[in-house]
Amino acid sequence: MRCSFVEILMISLATSAAADELTPLRLQESDIGKLPAGWTAARTGEGDGSLWKVVRDERAPGGSGLALEQAAKGPKPLFNLCVADSPKLSDLEMTVDFRPVSGEIDQGGGLVWRYQDHLNYYIARFNPLERNFRVYKVLQGRRTQLATQEDLELAEGWRRMKIVQAGPAIECYLDGKKYLEVRDESIIKPGNAGLWTKADAVTRFANLKIIVK
Question: Is the pLDDT of residue 149 over 90?
Fold first, then answer.
């Protein structure tokens, strides 16, 4: 019998040890071509976009042969969001594997956390077109850069991103190396976690895991 997304999380929470580890992005063959249950697509900005669906990708980390892809080619100001419906967390460690597929306006993508709604959240993202790794806050729909690492030379293929939030402290890692560290108290309430791309960035995500701090 297939468990729902919420049931999987409840089982994980009930059976986890000292550090509660969640794996909220569980993809199955039956999900191909659609958004998995327990996830919601959203947008910041105007325009059509934020089309998320499960696709086959035999090279996707995690062993499932599946990935969640943002497939829309939206306009420049549009942020494509895909957020897990639960749980809501404040302090966490979150990792995801992602692969930029295409994009002329923008490429790549990243993680969203302490998501209050489509206008208020934190983002960490890598853009291979610009060769930079950045962390932002979004407040009332306005994005403000908190820290950046420029001139990154990285090979093509799957990347791994990790963020750690503890109180006001944020750390951001790419392929196991910490590049960004900042403190910010703009969003202190627990929020949802999820994925992000911008504009026409077609990106695949897999193997998303969260550790509750």
Answer: yes
E strand or H helix at 40: strand 39-44
What digits encode the pLDDT tens for the residues 67-83? 999 999 999 999 999 99
Runs of H (alpha helix) within 82-146: none
Using CA of residue 154, residue 158, residue 164, residue 165, what is the dihedral sign? Answer: positive
Query: Structure tokens of 53?
Result: 């669906």
Distance of CA 67 to the CA centre of its chain: 13
Q: Looking at residue 35, what DSSP letter applies? A: P
End-to-end CA distance of the chain, in Å? 31
Q: Half-sphere exposure of 58 toward its Cβ, with a 13 Å CA cutoff?
A: 0
Residues sharing a CB contact under 8 Å with residue 197, sequence separation 6 or more, in sequence order = 70, 79, 80, 106, 108, 109, 203
Tell the CATH topology of 5-212.
Answer: Jelly Rolls (2.60.120)
168-194: pLDDT as tens digits:
999 999 999 999 999 999 999 999 999
Distance in angstroms (rounded) separating the CA atoms of residues 155 and 153: 7
